[in-house]
């Protein structure tokens, strides 16, 4: 420990390494619930890498919010506890920590080009098992599903071939096996 | 109800406004604080001929909120406030944030512009749920009259259960006029909200094992003990008697343990006692009951109680490990946890510990007499003023509220409490202007009690208009102003941190408080002579109407002892401030 910390009330636990986590947050689907979750992250200085939300149970009106966040273990423990303080939040599942999670993301990738570059883009798309969902003489829109790093890799390869625009869903996750998350 | 009704329900139909009043009555609400306006007129209309709920009309919506807080803290019941849309709601934001920080159960009903105007920047429209989302425990915008009754009952449930807090219900005007079914409290159904209240037996056993071995233990108790109800205070006393451990408390927890007890260490923290802070620093076991390791309590966190194991009891799991790592976390209601600890301690055959060495050390710290001050024949020292106020009121049915600043700390140091729910102060948010309206709320709940707001002349002017409320509603509160003509705590920090450059902390013009009291229809008292102070305080006590007491105190008194910002518990300033106590890092802190 250094002699002079930046602040005597310093709670950053800066000596701890940052970790990335995927959290599945089960909430009552009611007006404002997303604002509560997002507001909590901004008010307390937590990070959001990606966030997806949709209703997953239309009889009980439950939504599943998947948040990819990062922080020190101390911060991550607080994020979970603070989320659970919110009245509409039922459960928070740390998908990463469970080690049994699968994560997928969907991306729509627009690539424009002609000639060799166009052929090469289509060839790489086949390797990545991306679907072509729109085409013109000078462009493709690819649809690609996979783990985030697979999409990152695909996007990196498309850049020199004429990447125009990218749209990603953010991470979705679920636990393996027969049990509920 | 029409038997042929297609709706399968025995619910009575009524207007939204009537549903509000019916639900409040079902929740046992006897008093509410509010201010009417366009968007709540239907509710006010329903209140017009309602005798079972007393409505206290304030002069500013902030006053309604703090009054509701004072009512809640002194009764243990939720405080209720009713205000209009737009500015009514925004004026209520400070009390909502205040109640959130201090975990005070409060239900705030705000009017909203009619549904079809929401989002059009209508007259007196504001996004009340958006504004209060981050400073309330929960909030609702009611969009369907058939959901109104259930929403109100759920709001009370959320406000009062788990870690208590403020809940806001925003009701558009058309919903207040619309007809819908009334449902009772049993309609609440919120499976996602179920705060844990019972401790895990394994954790209790771990705690008892640590307590049995401790040589230098201390109880560090907080507002959670008060919030848990009178039973928790009783159990704290029982557990202390069964263990013999000394007790300190946060500002918010004063009264849970009797100040007259020989094992009472006084309040801890920035302006706490030397013995309490020294015991916290040197203890080998800290049992935190319903407190949250606030920065005003811990001081420098990396030097906080370095040699102790820590048991942390809190009903809010997010409090555990938030600031200080707990060796034994116990997530439970304070009363349930204290009961379990007491039962297990006794079942294990443990007896009260003598702790001779530890208590001798504590007595050594106590002997420093950290709150000592020199008597002054020429002027009233603020410490002396609170000390005399205490002596002359302690045997009465007294409730104390405060504003925020030096006077608040002197009140905490020199007024002593034997029972819970007698001390109302803004701890977390530190809201100047809390005390006078809070006193109104307390007095509304305790008609014959002696309710005193120990105030500063700067704070109290933020809410002075509420004297008019006190007069109108026959609430004979006593506002005891320690008038030093400075924003005392600001002045003290400027002396300490900013080279005695007193930037804008001196009130060049003050009202004649005696004349002001008269103008409001109350009674004014002025005193600047220590020899006449007792008689003046007695005059205040004996006056059966609201009193403004202008107690002129020595102007440049510092509030000591003090743990300077960024310092540890064992680095208290006890005597005079020299000027170099605070390092560069400390100066940047609040």
Structural commentary:
The complex is a heterodimer of chains A (about 180) and B (about 600). With about 180 residues, chain A is an alpha+beta fold. Chain A has two domains: about 20-95, 2-Layer Sandwich (Alpha-Beta Plaits), CATH 3.30.70.260; about 100-175, 2-Layer Sandwich (Alpha-Beta Plaits), CATH 3.30.70. Helix content of chain A is about 30%, strand content about 40%. Chain A has helices at about 35-45, 75-85, 95-100, 115-125, 150-160; strands at about 20-30, 50-55, 60-70, 90-95, 100-110, 130-135, 140-145, 165-170, 170-175. In chain A, the strands form two sheets. In chain A, strands 5, 6, 7, 8 and 9 form a five-stranded antiparallel sheet that branches. The two termini of chain A are about 40 Å apart. Mean pLDDT of chain A is about 90; it is low at about 1-5. Chain B is an alpha/beta fold and about 600 residues long. Chain B has 24 helices and 20 strands. Chain B has a six-stranded parallel sheet with strand order 3-2-4-5-7-6, with helices on both faces. Chain B has a six-stranded parallel sheet with strand order 11-10-9-12-13-14, sandwiched between helices.
